[in-house]
User: Fold this.
Amino acid sequence: MNAFSQAAFLRAAGRPEDLPAAGLPEIAFAGRSNVGKSSAINALLGRRALARTSKTPGRTQTINFYSLGEHAVLVDLPGYGYARVSQALRAQWGALVEAYLRSRGTRVGVVVVMDARHPLTALDLQLLGWIKDAVRLIVLSKADKLSKRAQAEALGVVQRRFPRIEARLFSSVTRQGVDDCRNLLEQWLQQVAPE
Ligand code: GTP
Ligand code: MG
Assistant:
């Protein structure tokens, strides 16, 4: 399908009423603020800066949609649970993300991105509890910051806790896990592609 080489920014939605009508299969990236969701999307698409990233948590404030040719859409969700934005903004993001997750019948799956250095924080577990049925892959990002041994430990912890969800170590810096994750997402899309 090679859809991942045909990525383009589609639109940004800041309010539930801005969400585009569901159509193409969608894969959404969720996770705590600053864990590397936007960086993971760029790495998977082989693009340096299609999705905007930042050292400052709370970079992504809208739901950003990226089209993969005519095949599918990748969705970059605002970081979940960022404490330092105002209560009002947090409530607004929560409502937006919730409206998105509830409205998408055609969604193919949600990828939850966690920091491999501390996977399964209370916020991660809260998010997983909230969208459990939709989650198909846990990406343990920033694996480059851990020794091989610590990486294996982090992966083991996640796999034991969620044996039915795929989990992968990932680094947008070294590109560890990038091809593997892209293959997985391509498989999902092929499963829903019309004959
Ligand atoms: P929000 O949009 O604020 O929720 O953040 P995000 O989850 O989209 O994170 P983003 O991709 O903006 O990355 C946050 C910071 O982590 C940036 O400084 C990135 O350069 C850094 N980062 C992301 N992925 C990796 C990685 O795999 N390894 C390392 N070392 N740093 C990373
Ligand atoms: Mg982001």
